[in-house]
Structure formats: C-alpha cells, structure tokens
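Predicting holo structure, NDP bound.
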Amino acid sequence: MSTEKQTVFLSGASGFIAQHIIKQLLDSGKFKVIGSVRSEDKANSLAKNFNKNPNLSFVYVKDIAEETAFDEAFKEHGSKLDFVIHSASPFTFDITDINKDLIIPAKVGSAGIFKASVKYASNLKHFVVTSSYAAINDLLRETDNTYHLNENTWNPMPFDEALANPIFGYCYSKKVAEQTVWKLAEELNAKFNVTAVNPVFVFGPQCFDSSVTKVLNTSCEIVNKFAHSTPETEVDESIKGSYIDVRDIARAHVEPLLDSDKFNGKRLLMDGGRFGNQAIVDVLNTIPQLKGKIAVGTPHKEDDIENQMAVIDNNATKKLLNFEFMNLEQTVKDTALQILKVEGKL
Ligand code: NDP
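Done. Tokens:
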C-alpha cells in the first residue's frame, strides 16, 4: 500500500475553522496542506504555530472577490492536488457595504476556486466547500417551532431582502456561495466529487493560544463577550441559534477526503443542538473562576429552548459521519477555559 501523502489545497488557512482543519489533516499523517492566506505575516505566524511542519506550505490569494484570484496558485500547484477545501469567506457583521463586503467575495470566491479546480487540478478527487446553516435556514422562521428543516432545505431569502442588514447579507452570501458550487459542478461537468459542510454557530478553543485576542472570531465572540461580562450585564435574547464544536466541524471536512464517494453530493448539516445567550451564561457560571463575576440572567430559562425553535433534522448527516458531536457544556467550557488560561486567570 502506498504511504505517499495526498495534497489538500485549503483556502482561508488563517481562519478559526481552517486552522483546526489543518491540524487534523497534518495529525492524520495522510496529507500535505497548501493553505492560501492573504499576507506573508499570516503565513509566517501559521508556519511558526505548526512548528514549521514540512507538510504545510502557503500561497498568497489576496482577495477572493477577484475573479481570477486563485488562478496563479492553481496554475502552479493544480496538477498535484488531490483535494480542495474552500473555507475562505467573510464572516463578519462589521462591514459598510453588504454586497461588496459580504456577497461578492463569497460568490466570486466560490466560483473562482471551483473554476480553477476544474481547469487546473486534473487529478482532483474531491471539492469540499465550507457553507453554513445560513444557506439552509429561513432566518425569519428560526423561532417558529412548526418549521422543519433538513439537509435538503434552502434559505429562501432573495437578494433585495439580503441588503436589509449585515446578518441577512451574510446568510444570503453563504447561500449564493454554496449554490454557485453546485451549479458549476453541473455546468462544468466536474469530474471530482463535491460536498458542502453547513455548520451552525461554531464554538470551541482557538487552535493556538496565540489566536486568543481581545476580540475573537465572530462566533466565539459570543462566548468571549459573556466571559468578560459583569454581574450587572443584561443577558438579552439577541442570539438564539444552534451550536457545534470547531473540532467536530474540522472532522466533517476531513471525513469526505477519506471516503470520497460516500460523501459525494451531500450537504452535512452540522448541528449539535439549540442554545441562546442564557444557556451560554449558565455554562460559564459553572466555571469556578467566572462564577459571581459575570452575568447571571435568569438561570435555566432556556432549558426548554429546543421546543421553542425551528426543528432541525440532521439524522442523515449524523448517520454519514457516524461520530458523536460535542455538547454545549464541553464546547463553551473549552472556549472559556482557553481564554482564562491565556489571561493568566486559571
Ligand atoms: P474566520 O473569520 O476566522 O475565517 C475567515 C477566513 O476567510 C480567513 O482566513 C479570512 O482571511 C478569509 N477571508 C475572508 N474574506 C476574504 C477575502 N476577501 N479574500 C481572501 N480571504 C478572505 O471565520 P471562520 O473560521 O469562523 O469561518 C470560516 C468559514 O466557515 C467561512 O466560510 C464561514 O462563512 C463558515 N462558517 C463559520 C461559522 C462559524 O460559526 N464560525 C458557521 C458557519 C459557517 P483573513 O484571516 O486574512 O481575514
């Protein structure tokens, strides 16, 4: 049996989720990774964190909103690629122009890397796109418990409604980015397999302590904000959603590379269960170093949250992946304990 490593191209290698994907790929001993980053600084800091692992290298893709952003990298490396994971996409609500800052990079980025894969990666076996629950869910029905959704559901929001606010815009950007991939796979008659990974809110520790900064990536910031709250902080109901741990998300990107045909054409609806701000605060208050120092809200008010929200059926995903997802307690605690450790509070 050949022990030669297979090569994965991973876009957005500096991202919160992407770093965990790199870690799992390298730890498996089965893969080499070529990660795309926007700057030399990001490449250097990742190389350092991964101990200058010889199986990890970088290319520069400065702005995925450029139609040919991936061409140069794929011209150079395409023929040696076995797998592509497209994870780069703007995930922030701190923007000025919804179309320019969120929708265009998501859509053009997906199209650019997919077309480059078809054109230059002649030996490619599998293309995995990091999509989102946002591409599946009807945001306006998130708290409608008569609304059922599964791996076949699509966010119905039209473009003009998406321009109402950055949250709508982000959700639309993920829908259009994923749709672009499926459409191009058909139109270009792609010879490789395709999978979409559709996570809900992703929590969990940063891959490296050095990434624990004052403000964290958009999803982990929900936990970070309450870990730095005071007993007077109000626990509002602004966030009601679903959680999943980043290590489970990384694994969902790696599994399709290990058993390609099984995952071909699938959307993996990565949902661990429902939560709201109160549930996060309840978990944080079980950590002795935080108890009495942070927001309290109305403890256990959200214990019944599953029954107040749209019903997510992701049994098909769970059956395909066949591993247990981490629970809310574990993912929130691990997120907070890393923050406390870095801040010298443990
Ligand atoms: P991060 O913000 O940590 O990562 C986003 C990555 O995309 C970074 O590497 C960033 O580069 C890169 N990127 C963004 N815009 C551009 C651009 N215009 N040109 C080049 N690169 C760009 O977020 P996550 O790790 O959380 O998200 C990764 C993926 O997962 C995204 O596709 C996101 O939509 C998806 N997702 C995330 C969820 C979550 O809860 N975290 C839930 C569902 C889906 P740089 O570091 O230089 O900014």
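The first helix runs from residue 16 to 28.
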